[in-house]
């Protein structure tokens, strides 16, 4: 089946570079060939109104916003909802819906063209008491996409008209971007200008450079911590005021931007940037980023034969990472992942309805380049050839202590092997390969469970055991990817479910609930989560009678007294909503699967 061509970068700010057009087409055709749900179904409800807002007030508010932004820049969300796919994603709802498709929806979408227009939207929201929800590109797939937490919020889609690379400074090796600049767009511009820099991108290149950093996403070059490598922000506060952080707070000469805005992060006084990440305290309209100088690089793969090697591998990584011998944040994946990154459906490997049994994974992996192994490590070293050779000698020697480990370079595996796409991502080239595992199930969607543990075998094993047991209990294949740094590791599992099946959704939601609770009872917490689980995760950070949440609420209420900006994001509810039934705790997510609203009963939020 040939589907309609996905948009290219020359057609749309959110499109794919022409170098990837054929790959994108192939990925789309393959995904759509497994789709059994219709493109859209008729809406059950009309426009989902903001809470506590009558249709008359809403219509009046929309008319007034249209006057400020232009009629065409405020669009009602009243058409059938289309989930689309990664490159043609909706800004109307969560394409990977867990609860009803019409639950995490906006009432309308506003498209500002400038910071001034963002300020106008914020003032408008305060006037009408209508919640707004800013997104940059909305490709936060697995964490809620572009959906607002409060149904009926107005999504502020910043990316469509604010997508300029405002500055690239070759001397300072930095850039300043607006929300709609994707990794694809930044990479292509740097290539076009033949600048000697790399960017750092996550597994998929279509996300917003700014949006991903604000949500504290990660990539895989030595500059993989995106928020740590930003420098300077311009933010519209919930009262409409404009703020520059860092050195940007000091006016440059004759009204120019401060010359050290992208050079020195903290400036003077409290370092405030952090409170604008994973929060609902402001709308980020510009952000500076440091770029990495291009360098030699060598990606490689190591395999380990036994499931029980897990703790020894983690123990071997720790000193290497702490001494700075590992070039980037390497990934350690269970061999089950080798099956799903081929892009072949689960049915190709196993016909049963239950999770693939370990012996079947073993048999199938034996036919793949990785062979019959249990864990696969993907790393990259940087520098000139001589230094890479020295680094690799040390690394090979450290891992050789684990019996049966094997080392592979890209030349040792076929051209379509995943290692080649790792080599691109780990040298700052944004690609699309990671979409492949969405072919695992028909209508595949996914949730991430992303706890942090110390880089210590014992801790990693506790979280792994919880995952093994609970994935089995709820009938899901376990796909762990561990991003291992010197002192902590992100243990990320990818829960893949069929979005046409309420039963799978309910089980996926129950699995998330239990994973969050059990990990927390052992002292491990998530670094990021889907919108629907934000309340549960936020409440696990409860030390000293929820001191951290009370602190966040104090800031929220001071900055946003009317509670208009992204209420509920990261579990932070403004006073107006707090304790009134909005929080999704206990089994409320799984109970909402299949139709029940996530809004409190007494809010007149449906027409
Ligand atoms: P991406 O396309 O990179 O995944 P998103 O636009 O989906 O990024 O952003 C991820 C999340 O971060 C959004 O859901 C939103 O809550 C928040 N966010 C994104 N951009 C901004 C911004 N410019 N200002 C404030 N919050 C933002």
TrEMBL record:
Keywords in UniProt for this one? Answer: FAD, Flavoprotein, Oxidoreductase
UniProt GO molecular function: D-lactate dehydrogenase (cytochrome) activity; D-lactate dehydrogenase (NAD+) activity; FAD binding
FAD-binding PCMH-type domain segment(s): 102-323
Picking any one GO biological process from the record gives: lactate catabolic process
Q: Provide one Gene Ontology cellular component.
A: mitochondrion
The highest taxon in the source lineage is Eukaryota
| UniProt xrefs under PANTHER family | ARYL-ALCOHOL OXIDASE VANILLYL-ALCOHOL OXIDASE (AFU_ORTHOLOGUE AFUA_3G09500)-RELATED (PTHR11748:SF114), D-LACTATE DEHYDROGENASE (PTHR11748)
Name the record gives this protein: Vanillyl alcohol oxidase
Species whose genome carries this gene: Trematosphaeria pertusa
């Amino acid at each position: 089946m040939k589907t309609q061509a996905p948009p290219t970068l020359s057609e749309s700010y959110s499109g794919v570079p022409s170098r990837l057009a054929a790959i994108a087409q192939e990925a789309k055709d393959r995904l759509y060939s497994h789709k059994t749900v219709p493109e859209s179904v008729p809406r059950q409800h009309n426009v989902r109104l903001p809470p506590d807002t009558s249709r008359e007030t809403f219509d009046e508010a929309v008319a007034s916003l249209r006057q400020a932004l232009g009629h065409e820049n405020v669009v009602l969300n009243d058409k059938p909802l289309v989930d689309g796919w990664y490159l043609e994603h909706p800004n109307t709802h969560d394409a990977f819906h867990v609860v009803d498709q019409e639950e995490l929806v906006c009432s309308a979408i506003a498209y500002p063209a400038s910071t001034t227009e963002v300020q106008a939207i914020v003032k408008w929201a305060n006037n009408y008491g209508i919640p707004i929800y800013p997104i940059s590109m909305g490709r936060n797939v697995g964490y809620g996409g572009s959906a607002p937490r409060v149904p009926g919020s107005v999504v502020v889609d910043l990316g469509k008209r604010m997508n300029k690379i405002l500055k690239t400074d070759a001397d300072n090796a930095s850039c300043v971007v607006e929300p709609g600049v994707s990794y694809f767009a930044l990479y292509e511009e740097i290539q076009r200008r033949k600048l000697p820099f790399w960017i750092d991108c996550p597994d998929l290149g279509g996300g917003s450079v700014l949006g991903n950093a604000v949500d504290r996403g990660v990539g895989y070059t030595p500059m993989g911590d995106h928020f740590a490598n930003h420098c300077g922000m311009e933010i519209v506060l919930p009262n409409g005021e404009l703020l520059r952080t860092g050195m940007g707070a000091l006016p440059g000469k004759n009204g120019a931007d401060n010359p050290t805005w992208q050079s020195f992060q903290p400036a003077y006084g409290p370092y405030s940037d952090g409170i604008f990440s994973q929060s609902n305290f402001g709308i980020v309209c510009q952000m500076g980023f440091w770029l990495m100088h291009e360098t030699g690089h060598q990606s490689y793969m190591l395999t380990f034969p036994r499931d029980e090697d897990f703790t020894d591998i983690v123990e071997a990584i720790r000193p290497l990472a702490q001494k700075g011998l590992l070039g980037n944040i390497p990934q350690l994946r269970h061999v089950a992942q080798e099956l799903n990154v081929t892009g072949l459906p689960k049915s190709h490997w196993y016909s049963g309805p239950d999770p693939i049994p370990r012996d079947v994974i073993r048999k199938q992996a034996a036919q793949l380049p990785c062979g019959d192994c249990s864990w696969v490590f993907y790393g990259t070293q940087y520098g000139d050839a001589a230094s890479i050779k020295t680094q690799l000698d040390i690394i090979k020697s450290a891992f050789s202590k684990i019996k049966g480990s094997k080392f592979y370079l890209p030349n040792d595996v076929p051209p379509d092997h995943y290692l080649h796409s790792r080599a691109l991502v780990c040298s700052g080239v944004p690609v699309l390969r990671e979409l492949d595992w969405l072919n695992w199930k028909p209508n595949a969607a996914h949730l991430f469970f992303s706890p942090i543990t110390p880089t210590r075998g014992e801790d990693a094993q506790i979280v792994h055991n919880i995952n093994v047991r609970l994935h089995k209990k709820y009938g899901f294949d376990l796909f762990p990817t561990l991003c291992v740094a010197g002192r902590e590791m992100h243990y990320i599992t990818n829960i893949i479910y069929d979005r046409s099946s309420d039963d799978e959704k309910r089980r996926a939601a129950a699995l998330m609930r239990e994973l969050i609770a059990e990990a927390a009872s052992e002292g491990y917490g998530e670094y990021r989560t889907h919108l629907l689980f934000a309340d549960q995760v936020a409440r696990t950070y409860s030390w000293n009678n929820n001191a951290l949440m009370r602190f966040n609420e104090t800031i929220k209420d001071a900055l946003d007294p009317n509670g208009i900006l992204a209420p509920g994001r990261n579990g932070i509810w403004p006073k107006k909503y707090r304790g009134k039934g909005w929080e999704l705790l206990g089994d409320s997510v799984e109970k909402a699967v299949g139709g029940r609203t996530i809004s409190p009963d007494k809010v007149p939020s449906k027409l």
